[in-house]
Specification:
By secondary structure, the protein is of the alpha/beta class. It is about 45% helix and about 10% strand. The chain has one domain (about 10-170): TIM Barrel, CATH 3.20.20.60. The chain has helices at about 10-25, 45-50, 50-55, 65-75, 90-105, 125-130, 140-150, 155-165, 170-185, and strands spanning about 40, 60-65, 110-115, 135, 190, 200-205. A 4-stranded parallel beta sheet has the order 1-2-3-4. A two-stranded antiparallel sheet has the order 5-6. Helix 6 links the parallel strand 3 and strand 4.
């Protein structure tokens, strides 16, 4: 899997080097897997723009959300002055993910998703609705994400994702997503706060569990 690929030319170059390595192993009679899958990380906008062309040359995509979000919005999340602009639910980010998934599936290849976004339980309905094939995440996130996937309706998630893709701001998307998860999985996204008046129940922020 090649990281930070920006276009098809880089794939061609990498494949040439890959075949040269295979030929060298063959000459030396060193056994190796003849059918190693060849894929790329989709992490920059230019890769999204030519995703259909990339898909024709590859066996799989893996969407790297950490870098994709940063490069799409044009912010440095390590810079405290602009880190607040780092927004996974930005409509541009969601549309880019859909574009990559659609291009991959049209070419008959699977599309995975990795990065912090993949391990955030609250994002499960959107990511399932965008038809991501597999998720890569921190082991600590696996139990909750698997639980929510098992309890989700693919049909409902796809309907919700189509609705979200027509929204214009991250705030709209966030509001709709919170409403959905609080209705479908209230026990997963509420926390008891005994010090609040009337022992109120408050929604957990993404990542705040």
């Amino acid at each position: 899997m090649l990281p930070l690929i920006s276009g098809v030319g880089e794939v061609f170059q990498a494949k040439r080097i890959f075949k040269e390595a295979q030929s060298e192993l063959s000459r030396k009679r060193i056994p190796f897997d003849q059918n190693i899958p060849f894929g790329v990380m989709i992490e920059v906008p230019s890769a999204i723009a030519v995703a259909d062309m990339l898909a024709e040359e590859l066996d799989f995509f893996s969407i790297g959300t950490n870098d994709l979000i940063q490069y799409t919005i044009g912010i440095d999340r390590s810079n405290e002055h602009v880190a607040y602009l780092y927004e996974p639910l930005h409509p541009g980010v969601l549309r880019f993910i859909k574009q990559a998934v659609d291009a991959g599936h049209a070419a008959g290849i699977p599309v995975a998703l990795c990065g912090e976004m993949a391990g955030e339980p609250m994002y499960v309905p959107i990511l399932l609705g965008l038809k991501i094939d597999s998720f890569s995440m921190n082991p600590a996130s696996l139990p909750r994400v698997k639980n929510l996937i098992r309890r989700s309706s693919m049909k409902e998630c796809c309907r919700f994702a189509n609705k979200v893709l027509r929204m214009r701001t991250a705030q709209e998307v966030n509001k709709a997503l919170r409403k959905l998860v609080m209705r479908k999985f209230p026990e997963e996204f509420r926390v008891f706060e005994p010090n609040r008046p009337g022992n109120a129940i408050a929604a957990i922020e993404p990542g705040g569990y």
